[in-house]
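re the bet — no i am not wrong, look at it urself. input seq straight from the record:
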Amino acid sequence: MNVLWFTGRRFDNFCSTTQSSLATGIIGKGHSVHILNPDEQGSHSDKKWKHTGFSMSSIPGLQSRKLSRGMKTWIQQNEFDDDTVAIVDWRVLSRIHGVLESKDIPWIMMDRSPPADPGILSLLQWSVWKKSWRIVARSNSAEACVVSNGHMDLVHSKVKISSDKFSIIPAGVDLELFSPSPKEETLTMIYHGRLDKHRGILSLPMLASKSVQSGLKVKLHLIGEGDCFTQLKELSKINDYIEVQSNIEQSKVAEILSKSHIGLLPMPNTKLWSIASPLKRSEYAASGMLIFGINHAGHAFPQNKNMDWVKLVEQYDFHTDGIEWFKSLDIESIEKLSKSARQFAEENLSWDNSVETLVSALTAQLN
């Protein structure tokens, strides 16, 4: 099977981990993968997959339009084997599904997240998102992949579509890359990913500050980029218990997580975050970390029972309940909970299940 993966996501940040892991898994099953995205041509030369790069507008709101035009032209100019099937990002689907069908290439849509940008741009993106889902709904054969049951329910609330059209592919984790190691002496809390205001990031320095004021010795480590980065960096200059870094290699992230104690999930209980399956959640568990965050379905594991190492609280109690929990922890309890987190990850969070589901969906399109 030859898989063409058309996506608007770049592979140079944390958001590409899912695509990279799934692509590697598909290849591991004996199939070929060709990634088509906005990355510079030649930038994937060290990867196992083929790659074609396209230019993309720098103007927000017009980026996917230019990208998908380039993809459409590429499809028109090439010939494909009979066992070719496509994975298409919802951002580019409306402009390329027709040319794929004219080339007799079956496809499935990939939706890892509905629009997340704030403001007017989000309104424009929601229109594109709904249009793409309507295309899936009308298709006689095409299906789509979502990250959770909540995600599927959201689609049902917006578009009339059969439940048979869905495959659920939650975020997994590389259990070899993300693994525990001896922890830091100071209680270390960490968040990695986008450092954007609408993700609740600014609640984290306050959590660390109130913890210190209560007598706890803690460290807060933030890794990523976003609209809060400069503000967070300034806070780190005047508070030695806060460290802020821009994006770093995944292997470096894994090394830092392995030595840390608590992974933070501050995203608020909104429509967007309540349907998510955050990759960092799985990486925290695999690294033997405890998890502290806001209580909603997007942060809770589907099997969320008897998990003493996961503490989810209401948003208005985030700081108070967090400090109370931190104070209850000691070296012995952290070690016990860390082992439980790792065991859960080994039993439930490997990418293998997600890869198997995706390969089955792709194979079905060729039959």
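see?? The longest strand covers residues 32-37. told u. also The mean pLDDT is 92. so pay up
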